[in-house]
């Protein structure tokens, strides 16, 4: 089947069938296939946010010497900013009917989009899938010590692979169920953990091991929670692009997306902060969970095991769409298999020292995604991308490079002196740690500034090799990806 970038995409009769393999890849979703309700965005993101590592991030408040009040305000603001952008991006998906990675061809150009998609989206999809496999496999191994880690991970990744192959409708169906199950599960974990802890609440502590001042610590800690949602920015539209194409649905989808993400992060983050005083240095997340939940540990471990599915359905699916965006001639099904195999291999290597590797991966990804998000948002609101008649441009390979690519590069380069990772510290955190981690802000603002200065300029274009590549009015009539890539399942 060939791909078409506009409302002329052929009707493949997918509709709301849950047990059918999704027939679309990076295609524009035609009006006849638009279905679902805006409420679905709440369940899909609420379920994805029910994740124990968020509580582990909350533990860090004590290490930064923050008071409980400061920690709570940092969690709320960091989560709100990240969730608000998620809501906007979700709204864009319902409006345009294409994946987020295809949308980024607008500001960056068809081929300029390759670099950030290759690193940010494909790398993020594989990396986050590996992170979640590790946590789920550790939980399964803790429940059944006789099952080795490698086998636990293999079982989990196999189930996730099958669901991701079925695609959009199956993922939405299971996320709705998991949102209810995980809600009650994490209520239990929260109540039992806080009840069992003997160190709930804390005051500011200048003697804390990572104390960098009240302001710097607050900024850095808020960035922890914002970065968790920044990591989802390149994938937000992927799960709203089938929604009915009307302004009301799009706006409600954005609101539900914001709510689902904000509630989970603030809830679990604050719960983690409350438990920070009882955190043990160097303790693995699953060990911390078992200790905090006591006799309820088996139930808590099952909850964490289930939460690995709610995250990885999205990680694997989004990563596969990213592979297709790069014009790699594989079907979505094959891309899913590749993502799962690579994530499984990485999980076997990265299982030890999970928390440190998790934070490095989280922050590095967010550093690179923040300027990417700036170009994407401004292209939509300022560059006129919300005009649905311009969807064809996203599939026009003669648009080689646009100035949004240079905005992204400028944002990344400008932010490097602010990077604060365990393996690399820029000039700012070394000489002015009291400023906190401003990387996200610097990258976003610089990219936004460069975009605003250049978006009117013409991008780099090339003449089409064949007349068939461009329609009579200059719009693309087909994505050049081979027919076996996007249109085929």
From TrEMBL:
Entries under InterPro entries matching the protein: Pur-cyt_permease (IPR001248), Pur-cyt_permease_Fcy2/21/22 (IPR026030)
TM ranges: 42-62, 68-89, 110-135, 147-170, 177-195, 215-235, 256-275, 295-314, 335-354, 360-380, 400-418, 438-457
Topological type in the membrane: Multi-pass membrane protein
UniProt xrefs under Pfam families: Transp_cyt_pur
Family (UniProt): Belongs to the purine-cytosine permease (2.A.39) family.
PANTHER family on file: PURINE-CYTOSINE PERMEASE FCY2-RELATED (PTHR31806)
Name by which UniProt lists this protein: Cytosine permease
Phylogenetic placement of the source organism: Bacteria, Bacillati, Actinomycetota, Actinomycetes, Mycobacteriales
């Amino acid at each position: 089947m060939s791909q078409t970038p506009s409302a002329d995409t052929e009707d493949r009769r997918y509709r709301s069938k849950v047990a059918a393999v999704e027939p679309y890849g990076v295609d524009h979703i035609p009006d006849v296939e638009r279905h679902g309700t805006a409420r679905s965005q709440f369940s899909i993101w609420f379920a994805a946010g029910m994740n124990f590592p968020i509580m582990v991030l909350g533990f860090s408040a004590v290490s930064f010497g923050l008071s409980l009040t400061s920690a709570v305000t940092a969690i709320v603001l960091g989560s709100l900013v990240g969730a608000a952008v998620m809501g906007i991006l979700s709204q864009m998906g319902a409006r345009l009917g294409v994946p987020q990675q295809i949308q980024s061809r607008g500001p960056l150009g068809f081929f300029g989009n390759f670099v950030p998609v290759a690193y940010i989206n494909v790398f993020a999809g594989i990396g986050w899938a590996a992170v979640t496999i590790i946590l789920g496999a550790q939980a399964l191994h803790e429940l059944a010590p006789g099952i080795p880690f490698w086998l636990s991970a293999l079982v989990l990744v196999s189930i996730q692979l099958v669901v991701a192959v079925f695609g959009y409708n199956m993922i939405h169906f299971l996320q709705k169920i998991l949102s209810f199950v995980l809600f009650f599960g994490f209520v239990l974990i929260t109540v039992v953990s806080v009840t069992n802890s003997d160190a709930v609440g804390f005051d500011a502590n200048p003697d804390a091991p990572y104390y960098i001042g009240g302001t710097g610590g607050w900024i850095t800690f808020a960035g922890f929670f914002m970065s968790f949602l920044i990591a989802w920015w390149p994938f937000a539209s992927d799960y709203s692009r089938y929604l009915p194409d009307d302004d009301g649905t799009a706006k409600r989808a954005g609101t539900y997306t914001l709510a689902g993400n904000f509630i989970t992060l603030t809830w679990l983050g604050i719960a983690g902060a409350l438990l920070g005083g009882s955190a043990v240095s160097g303790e693995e997340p699953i060990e911390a969970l078992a200790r905090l939940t006591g006799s309820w540990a088996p139930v808590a471990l099952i909850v964490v095991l289930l939460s690995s599915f709610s995250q990885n359905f999205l990680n694997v699916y989004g990563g596969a769409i990213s592979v297709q965006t790069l014009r790699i001639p594989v079907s979505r099904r094959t891309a899913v298999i590749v993502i799962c195999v690579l994530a499984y291999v990485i999980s076997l290597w990265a299982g030890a020292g999970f928390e440190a590797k998790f934070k490095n991966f989280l922050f590095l990804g967010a550093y690179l995604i923040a300027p990417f998000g700036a170009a994407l948002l401004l292209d939509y609101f300022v560059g006129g991308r919300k005009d649905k008649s311009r969807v064809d441009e996203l599939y026009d390979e003669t648009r080689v490079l646009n100035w949004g690519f240079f905005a992204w590069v400028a944002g990344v380069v400008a932010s490097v002196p602010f990077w604060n990772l365990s393996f690399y510290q820029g000039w700012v955190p070394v000489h002015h740690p009291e400023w906190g981690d401003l990387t996200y802000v610097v990258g976003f603002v610089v990219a936004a500034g460069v975009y605003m200065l250049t978006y009117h300029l013409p991008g780099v274009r090339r003449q089409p090799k064949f007349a068939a590549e461009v329609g009579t009015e200059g719009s693309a009539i087909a994505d050049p990806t081979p027919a076996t890539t996007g249109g085929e399942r």
